[in-house]
Amino acid sequence: MIYFISDTHFGHANIVKMCERPYPDVEAMNEALITAWNERVHGDDTVYIIGDMFFRCSDPEFILKRLKGKKWLIVGNHDGSWMDKVDLNHYFVSVDNYLETTDGVHGMTICHYPLLAWKNAGRTYMVHGHIHADTNSDYWPLIQRRERVLNAGVDVNDYRPVTFEEMVENNRKFKAAHAGQDCAHNADETAKN
Fold it and tell me: For 34-38, which contacts have Cβ atoms below 8 Å and span 24 or more sequence positions?
């Protein structure tokens, strides 16, 4: 099985409040994310981690050695601070900034940052992280309209690794639930000026 996940931010105390995650503190979040991961992922499963796995985590290895599956890391903006603390070759099949791959059915470009143009965009998917569940940015209206742009972030995908099909459905629901917010954001910005 192939899974996708992004923006776990293991060790990041402020992310609980900033993203309104359903945990009392960072320790509870870390343990809940590990449990959710291991309930789904088995030893031979592939997990694409699409950036920002850790942030301000004092012991990334303590968490890495507990996570099941063959892990592929796509580097995010917060990953540089922990990557020199562990033997990446021991924990990851591959570490990349950008990846073009397939799950056998769907072609995809994987990058931590959402892209609006990628190779074979009309036939393949863009899988990203970085934006969490943010719908208040200038780029949200563009992402919202692109069915082939998929957010792998835990804040959109029930705080667990998801299959491609689950990610498509979660993104469809998230985008539908936030339809029209681009208008509200633009109206708010206009009112400020």
Answer: 34/63, 34/66, 34/67, 36/158, 36/159, 36/160, 36/161, 37/5, 37/67, 37/68, 37/69, 37/160, 37/161, 38/66, 38/67, 38/68
Residue among 119, 110, 118, 43 at smallest CA distance from 76: 110
Structure tokens at 87: 């033997």
- Is the pTM for the entire model greater than 0.85? yes
CA distance 75 to 50: 7
Query: Tokens 């359903």 belong to which residue?
Result: 22
Of 47, 17, 2, give the one whose Cα is nearest residue 132: 17
Cβ-contact 111, 98 below 8 angstroms:
yes
Q: Percent helix, strand, coil in the chain (nearest 5)?
A: 35, 20, 45
Domains and CATH numbers, the chain: 2-192 (3.60.21.10)
Tokens of 173: 């629901």
pLDDT in tens, 63-122: 999 999 999 999 999 998 899 999 999 999 999 999 999 999 999 999 999 999 999 999
d(CA 146, CA 39): 31
Residue 185 pLDDT > 80: no
Distance, in Å, from the CA atom of 75 to the CA atom of 83, rounded to the nearest integer, reads: 9
